[in-house]
Amino acid sequence: MKVKVRIKNVKKNIEKFKNMKNPDFILGRIEKDMAKEVNLRFRNESGPDGKAWASLSAGTILRRYNPEKGLGTTQKSVRRMKKRGWKNGQIEKAFHLQKGTVSKLTKGTSGIATKGVAKILQNTGRLKKSINSAHDNKEAKVGTNLIYATTHNYGLKKKNIPARPFMGLSMNQKLRYQEWIRKWKRGEL
């Protein structure tokens, strides 16, 4: 009787065993996925539950106006759309603006507009760039050290700032990580 052992399979099994004994492997994988999910939330402008963030208020849009650059592309587009017969609600939906914003942008606010299509929580990009991730042998974490991040994530009723959650685990993430951990413990990852 001859026994054939393929070196390729042995190496594969050794790697699985190493990964099973080293929590750094699974926690590193979870860390990367959590960071990717937070970046997707900024891109999609939605929270962990998939719910879209609250639109920008007219006041925020007006504060972002840069008089040195003249009319912003959003206001030019709004004026063009109004001339073509678009209704305010249709325009607000197209630009993800809060209800009543178009009338404020077009009534007596000549020259006031956004810089292009306004991105929620990304005026300067500082918040998105501050997101960092790390892991050790016990935990994987993603976060930011900016003081105002908590206000934007959970909202602030006193100042009428709506919650726009960008941090936190979705139900799909929780289930995915549980499955990864089960597979890792069985040596299947």
Q: Explain this structure to me?
A:
This protein starts with 6 loop residues before the first helix and ends with a helix. The relative contact order is 0.19. It has a two-stranded antiparallel ribbon. The longest helix is centred in the N-terminal third of the chain and has 22 residues, at 23-44. With 189 residues, the protein is mainly alpha-helical. The chain has helices at residues 7-21, 23-44, 58-63, 73-83, 88-95, 101-106, 126-129, 149-154, 171-186, and strands at residues 132-135, 140-143. Residues 1-5 and 108-116 have low confidence and may be disordered.
Figure out the total of helices.
9
Poorly predicted tracts of residues: 1-5, 108-116
Element string (H = helix, E = strand): HHHHHHHEEHH
- Please give the radius of gyration in angstroms: 24 Å
What structural category do the secondary elements indicate? mainly alpha
Q: What helical percentage do the residues reach? A: 40-55%
Terminal residue distance: 33 Å
What fraction of the residues are assigned to beta strands by DSSP? under 5%
What structural keywords apply?
189 residues; mainly alpha; two-stranded antiparallel ribbon; 2 strands; elongated; disordered N terminus
Describe, in short, the structure shown.
The protein is mostly helical and 189 residues long. It has helices at 7-21, 23-44, 58-63, 73-83, 88-95, 101-106, 126-129, 149-154, 171-186, and strands spanning 132-135, 140-143.
